[in-house]
Amino acid sequence: MASKVSCLYVLTVVCWASALWYLSITRPTSSYTGHRQVNSISIARKNVSFGNIRTRPINPHSFDFLINEPNKCEKSVPFLVILISTTHKEFDARQAIRETWGDENNFKGIKIATLFLLGKNADPVLNQMVEQESQIFHDIIVEDFIDSYHNLTLKTLMGMRWVATYCSKAKYVMKTDSDIFVNMDNLIYKLLKPNTKPRRRYFTGYVINGGPIRDVRSKWYMPRDLYPDSNYPPFCSGTGYIFSADVAELIYKTSLHTRLLHLEDVYVGLCLRKLGIHPFQNSGFNHWKMAYSLCRTTCAVPKQVADGAIAEFRQLSTAEPTLTRT
Ligand SMILES: *[C@@H]1O[C@H](CO)[C@@H](O)[C@H](O)[C@H]1NC(C)=O
Ligand SMILES: *[C@@H]1O[C@H](CO)[C@@H](O)[C@H](O)[C@H]1NC(C)=O
Predict the structure, then answer these.
(1) Which end of the chain is more exposed for a tag (fewer CB within 10 A), N or C?
(2) pLDDT digits 0-9 by tens, 186-218
(3) Which of 145, 155, 158, 260 should be mutated for ligand 2, with most atoms under 8 A from CB?
């Protein structure tokens, strides 16, 4: 009798176990909609960390667009999307960029899309002025996070999200600041080369191999509890970096599961390391402010030189950087 009961008991347990196992393998683990609760429970039985990662992003970036340009890439696919981190009061800087290197109509046959990135300002008057500016130029995007130096990473992620959502077919993306001069000729013809096959998983800029600064007075101070390691992965200086557009979605999605850091360039470097993408060093990217020189900023590249000897080519590219802080 006793053995019969225990046999039944074992059988019931086995049945329950198989039912649970069956449930856990038949529920699609990648589905974000629907039975989210059930999902995480059944996955948790199998693999706790996997369930947690899929269902609870640690950095969900749940902001809404306050100003958006969802149709900017609809008519034609840009070769290059330029994302410029800016602040509300920099009306003049934005206008200068629109009229110079950021002009979307500078290059025949090469579509450029220029966008300025902003958060929400505490001052409603400034928000309103930006709204009006946006209605004139249609080149501003704003999400509803508070615009501050410590939220720069959110601004970059907003840009990545925008490219991934509204412009994923673009070939390249540049992220830069509003106090930067970009030599677009160099950038387009020497670096990106529109006539060659577009690269993928490509990331370049001024690569920094460094570690956290623990001096609280520094602009780049990093508290030990936020980042305990003594080294950063290689990252491209936030003054300006360029990547193939496929990387935008990869970084954005990786960021959802990567603890936020306020240093946006370091943070992007962390995401790249997770993705196994190595940023390329590029000698034409200048990290520091340079003395103004007419030749640095306005010399056109003579066609025969651009097409010509490598030696000359190198010389030219060091004398005349692609990117300069103004
Ligand atoms: C469980 O999660 C770990 C870490 O995310 C992962 O490496 C491993 O492959 C997972 N195992 C299963 C059976 O899914
Ligand atoms: C960053 O933005 C978030 C969302 O608006 C806000 O809660 C937070 O206070 C901001 N952080 C800083 C340092 O301004």
Answers:
(1) N
(2) 999 999 999 999 999 999 999 999 999 999 999
(3) 145
